[in-house]
């Protein structure tokens, strides 16, 4: 427990105040930034900044030329107040007076001192980088001497610390309970979006930025003699553009033919956004011999509860048609679905006018089940009927044998 002082003792709603160390540590560690309050020439200042807690010290990041860092050089340090707040919900009451918010906050008072020891400063900066992503310090360049000289760190001992929280629902006056107004809590939470790589980045997305996915939603790498499947990334855009310039590739697909690399980039971003939201599992297809980008394919309509998945969003460079690429890619996707994920059903959808695609799906051993009328709108605005095929787990053993047999006589990729 932190000792109560006159600065940390609440004057109202004392039941919301907490002095437990683990409560304060949890809130400080969860937050990525804080607000640093101090005075300059008798006037208040509040600055947002990054922080990290190491043991019983809160470290604050700043520039060597900033006012608080300059003031903290003296022996007495800089008197500060640091606040961190997590807003968890908006509380709507029947009366305006009782509208409120659910929150968790921690406030720290004390004197901050400039960190001058090089080892301590280096450890703090590493901890700051590790806070934004475990393992990130080993996957980025450390600061050089000039950068270290331009960076300052303040150390604030955790001594005067208090935690305040508000949880629960609406608190109303008894006479307001019969009012005909909606009341309740709107939960709020901070979520991460899909990481957006900088221009020119070819490195794969690091593990600390990947979402936690079920095996069903994970684009696990797979390799065969003709084709490799790897997680799709923005770095594959130029390769996809080069491989799929033939207009015939895009005939009967549910997207407009791209006319520029930017159009392909939009398709890739859409696939990755859908993957981030759990709606799709996108792979890039690579020529197993040359490593060239040759196309893409995906799982979609992923349903682990009912053990089913669809295969689609597939396009392949014209040069790799009638080779072993498509057969082997589908063999790997089916093997993963039936043997690794335990699927009971795998589905395909194709435009009723796309007879070439229908023949290819039938050669996989799938059965035509239905025609879904006016199932999807084509890029030109017309409505398409969709032919649905499926393979169930009982049909997989025989289909697998036939697929492996056909691969033995398949034309090598790229020929």
TrEMBL record:
Pfam families documented for this protein: Acetyltransf_3, Pyridox_ox_2
Group of enzyme by EC: transferase
InterPro entries: Acyl_CoA_acyltransferase, GNAT_dom, Pyridox_Oxase-rel, Split_barrel_FMN-bd
EC number(s) per entry: 2.3.1.-
Protein source organism: Plantactinospora solaniradicis
Protein name in UniProt: Bifunctional pyridoxamine 5'-phosphate oxidase family protein/GNAT family N-acetyltransferase
Domain N-acetyltransferase: 227-388
Protein keywords: Acyltransferase, Transferase
Transferase is among the record's keywords: yes
């Amino acid at each position: 427990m932190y000792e109560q002082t006159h600065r940390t003792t609440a004057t109202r709603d004392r039941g919301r105040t907490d002095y437990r160390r683990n409560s304060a540590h949890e809130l400080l560690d969860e937050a990525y930034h804080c607000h640093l309050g101090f005075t300059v020439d008798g006037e208040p200042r509040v600055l947002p900044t990054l922080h990290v807690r190491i043991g019983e010290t809160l470290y604050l990041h700043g520039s060597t030329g900033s006012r608080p860092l300059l003031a903290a050089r003296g022996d007495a340090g800089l008197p500060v107040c640091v606040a961190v707040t997590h807003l968890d919900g908006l509380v709507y009451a029947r009366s305006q007076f009782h509208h409120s918010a659910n929150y968790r906050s921690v406030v720290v008072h004390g004197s901050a001192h400039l960190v001058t020891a090089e080892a301590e400063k280096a450890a703090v900066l590493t901890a700051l980088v590790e806070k934004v992503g475990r393992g990130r310090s080993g996957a980025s360049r450390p600061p050089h001497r000039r950068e270290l000289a331009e960076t300052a760190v303040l150390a604030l001992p955790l001594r005067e610390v208090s935690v305040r929280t508000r949880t629960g629902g609406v608190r109303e006056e008894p006479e307001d309970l019969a009012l005909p107004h909606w009341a309740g809590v709107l939960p709020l939470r901070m979520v991460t979006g899909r990481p957006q790589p900088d221009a020119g980045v070819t490195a794969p997305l690091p593990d600390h930025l990947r979402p936690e996915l079920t095996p069903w939603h994970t684009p696990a790498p797979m390799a065969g003699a003709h084709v490799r499947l790897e997680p799709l990334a923005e770095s594959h855009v130029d390769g996809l553009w080069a491989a799929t310039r033939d207009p015939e590739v895009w005939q009967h697909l549910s997207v407009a033919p791209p006319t520029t690399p930017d159009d392909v980039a939009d398709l890739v971003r859409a696939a990755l956004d859908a993957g981030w939201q759990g709606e799709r599992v996108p792979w890039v297809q690579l020529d197993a011999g040359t490593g060239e980008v040759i196309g893409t394919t995906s799982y979609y309509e992923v349903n682990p509860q009912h053990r089913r998945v669809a295969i689609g969003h597939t396009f392949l460079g014209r040069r790799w048609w009638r080779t072993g690429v498509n057969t082997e890619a589908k063999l790997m996707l089916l093997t993963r679905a039936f043997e690794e994920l335990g699927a009971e059903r795998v589905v395909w959808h194709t435009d009723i006018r796309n007879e070439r695609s229908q023949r290819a799906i039938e050669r996989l051993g799938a059965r035509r089940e239905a025609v879904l009328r006016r199932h999807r709108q084509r890029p030109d605005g017309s409505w398409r009927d969709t032919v649905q095929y499926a393979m169930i787990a009982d049909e997989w053993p025989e289909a697998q044998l036939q697929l492996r047999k056909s691969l033995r006589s398949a034309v090598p990729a790229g020929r």
